[in-house]
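To: structure subgroup
Subject: Chain for Friday's discussion

All,

I'm putting the inputs and outputs inline so they're searchable in the archive.
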Amino acid sequence: MREWLRLKNIKRTGWVRAGVDDAESVAAHSWGMSILAMHLCPPSLDKTKVMEMAIIHDLPEVIVGDLTPHDDTSNKAADEMKAMSELAPQWLELFSEYEAQESPEAIFVKRLDKLDMSLMAEIYQQDQGLDLSEFIASARPYVADMDLNHL
């Protein structure tokens, strides 16, 4: 369990590379997704499963690190699966479902992942005067059809 909590100390690599001061941790990102899930989860989905998936989706980064498209990600899937099996085998099936995008819940959580990133980009842009439009643009295909009027 102590290893899981190390996620609080891992900064989001994309924000660090973009020059964000005091970038959020990976655990803070998972919290952001979770609070969005509580608010946006459609009644047709299993909210508990969505919440659990949001919380654990980046847990392997404790071992693998927070890789971005700028990194060599050729072994990322295998490395993360191995890390998850070592860190939390009890959640390996849930993690695998998310990675495979094989359920409506997994697809929704992926959209939340992108939504959280996009919203944080907007916050960092406003607060720090950075141009983070590349992050917002990369999220757009995932969140374009989400009803966000009540955010």
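Points worth raising on Friday:
Residues 2-63+77-143 form a domain with the Hypothetical protein af1432 fold (CATH 1.10.3210.10).
The chain has nine helices and no strands.

D.
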